[in-house]
Amino acid sequence: MRYPAIGGLHPSVVDRIQMTAGDAPRVGAVPSTVDLLPPAACLEHLESATSRFSTALAGGDLAAPVTSCGDWRLLDLTHHLGGIHRWARVAVIEGHPNGTPDDPPVDRAGLVAWFEEGAAAVLATLREAGPAAPCWSFGPKPRTTAFYRARCPPSGPPAS
Description:
This protein is mainly alpha-helical. About 50% of the residues lie in helices and about 0% in strands.
C-alpha cells in the first residue's frame, strides 16, 4: 500500500517514499533535506554554497579549525571538498569510482582557484548530463546523476 502525499514534500520525493502498512520504511527511502529539492534547485544550491565557501576561503585563515570536522583546518576541508568535486565528476563522466585527485595547492590564491575550478567543472558536468543520466554511484538504484546533484558537498562557510 502506498500512503497518500505527505504534506510539505516535493512531489518527486513522495514518489520515492514507499512504505507498506505496518512496515518500517525501506532502507534509503527516507529523503535527506536536500532530496526535497527538485534537480535544478539542487544545482542552484550547490552553486550558491560553493560560491559562499569560496568567498570564505579567500579571506579565511587556512589554519583555522573547522569545529564540525574534528581536527581539520580550513585547508583540510578545502582539499576534501575540492577532491570530492573532482571525484564525483569522474564518476559521472567515466562511470567508475577510481578518480585520482590531483595535488591541491596550499597557497591561498592557488587554493581558491583550484576549488573554484573543481566546483565549476562538477556543476557543468551535472548540468550537461541532466538528472536522469546513468552513472556510477554507491547509492541505491537507479544509479543516475541525480545522486550527485543531491549529495555533492554543499560547502557552506566554515565555522570560525
